[in-house]
Design brief:
Helix content: 25-40%
Number of helices: 12
Strand content: 15-25%
Structural class: alpha/beta
Amino acid sequence: MVLSSFMFLLLSNIHVANAFTTSSCSLKDDGFQHRHTSKKATVALQSSSRSSTTDNDSSIPLPNVLCIGETLWDSLPSGIYLGGAPSNVAVHLAYLFNVPSSSSNEVEKNKNRPTVAIAACLGKDQLGKEAQRRLALNGVRTDYVQYHSEWETGMATALLDSNGDATYEFNTPAAWDGLCLDPNLKHLIQQQQQQTDGQEKDHHHVLFVMGTIAGRLHNDYGATSLSTLMSVRNTAPEGTVILDINLRSPWYKDETVLELARGSSEKKLALLKVNEEELAILEQWCGMDTNIDDLFGDALKTRMEHLAQSLNTQRLCVTRGHLGAALWCDDGNKASFDENPGYSLPNKNNDSDTVGAGDAFLASLINSLFIHGETSAKALERACALGGYVAGCRGATPSHGDAPDALRNLFSI
């Protein structure tokens, strides 16, 4: 079996009985540069109140951020890691939300800390239970986790090239293809709609963060994740959905990606994130004739403004690998454009990988821009710092405490 070594390394006494098919795709995680680290990650402990959802539970406290999509296991040459883009974003947000404080009133501050939850579908197997346990250990709330009755927890085997970019093989179909709009998720969205309509006095806006790869199977094999993503996009209040474009061949169709971005109504995305290659592809899909080499200054600003207007988003972020990133914003008050050259870290032993760097970047951007209300320039600086650090580590979610002081001081708030 392809993944037998994976399971023996991860847990003892695990047996997966069902056969699966494998499919491959190429993954380039925003091209951040690398740095070697040998320190072990440490995580903050936070308990989870639920491990599975069935009937609607209105007593679940609202998270500040809900990441929606795939949770799976990544098997890299350097080890076995919990992964999936939305899960990586959630873990990094939990790290950022739980930075130790020097305040004398630590108990009171803990009560006011923002929280992040994950809406994902796992298999009813040992790997699914372990994934849920590790998410909770990392500080991610699992109130919205679902379990599929038939499909196994997602797993991916990766081979890295000389640049640290990966080619993956997925088990297909997997549990993360079966994410449903269950009663708890549906209730949360309805609650947000009521707040927007002014039916509730105490406003607690939730940010919904999702990527495009969770909808890879459309409705093949009876998959439901795409319809769930579409429902969230079209029913969540305007300016509360953050979409990370993940174009992983062969797992996308242009019409589906464009529909997720634009939505079925006039509601705008809060933020759309792409890398420089995805920027050019989206422009082509939108019928725009642009120079793909225009990646800086006013030329890039014009490209981003036009694409943002076409794709119905208030903010557009373009990552440029080791050349940093750019952020265009227009929330209805004033348009702005900022760039950051990024952070290059030495890679002495060539054993790091770029997996998760873009997810860490996005988590930091969300924390600074939406949770703390900082300027777009400051948010971009913090995001580039965290993305650069993670690109120099093994795995997608290394401990933030192991980052060099100079970088940690930049991305920590």
